[in-house]
Write the structure tokens for this entry.
Amino acid sequence: MTRTFGNPYRGAGLPDLQPRPGADAGAVAALLAQCPRHQRTPLRDASGLAARAGVARVTIKDERGRMGLGSFKALGAAYAIARAAAQAGGVLPTALSDRTYVTASAGNHGLSVAAGARLFGATAVIYLAQTVPEGFAARLRGMGAQVVRAGADYEASMVAAGDAAKAQGWTLLSDGSWPGYVDLPFRVMEGYRQIATEIADQMTDRPTHILLQAGVGGLAAAVAAELRLAWGDAPQVIVVEPEAAPALIESIRAGHVVETTGPVSAMGRLDCKTPSMLALADLARDADRFVTLTEAEAATGAAAVESAGWPSTPSGAAGVAALLAGLADTDADSHVLCILSEGPEDA
């Protein structure tokens, strides 16, 4: 199977799976403005990476410090919970004291659920697969969340979380979506649009290529959709996945959501074998190409950003890794935008 695939649905989207309308980045910004921990994350000019990749410029949106949680995920579940608290009314620190949010996570999504729950008085229960590092579990417990280990992989932990939600009457807050479950994942993705609105405001010139890493696809879909609104069709949007978890590229090949299989990837936060239905719909319309990374290429990308002074993980640096691996179809005049989506695991 080829490791790159041009998107035949670009512009029109999938015939039977169209993007859901109504996302509002302005509403996200208005709610975040009320949060004392919110501030926009920086853009970094990565001249050393540009020279190494043989392109004119590399710009990195650095999400490692987002709201003190260490990744872009701070904008997703926490925003969805904050929105629910605002709608509930009353005193915000206790607005959701009667509610329990449950989810499965490969790490960062769980931190966002835990943070949002703690801020508004809710309880958070996070299901983790056996492959998730114990460091993430410890951070979750430190934020007041209950941690449950279940399943050999993310998909198995997601099933366990869904079963618990049904049995206990809890609110399932996943960053993935499927038929019958779209409302909360839609709000999670809406929160991620803040990244793109900041990028469009911060950048003085439009990039030629945008490299977006994807697990279930929420980040990539939200950023691509919002930057299409800001910049139109000109930038090439390239979605980057682990070769071990090619959920989006295989779904685009098939023309519908498919479940993939593969070994455990060191790109742990991207190691998702089934895409979000909502994300697939958006990316079928907005992405130009899908590519997959080998484990060795991902490690090279992580080492490169660490050498540049911005330590991350193979997941966080996957866009940079794809550029260095020659998967972005760039040339000497290209200006490439990448997102450094998380800090190092020991941060």
Notes: The mean pLDDT is 94. The two ends are 36 Å apart (CA to CA). The CA atoms of residues 102 and 172 lie 5 Å apart.
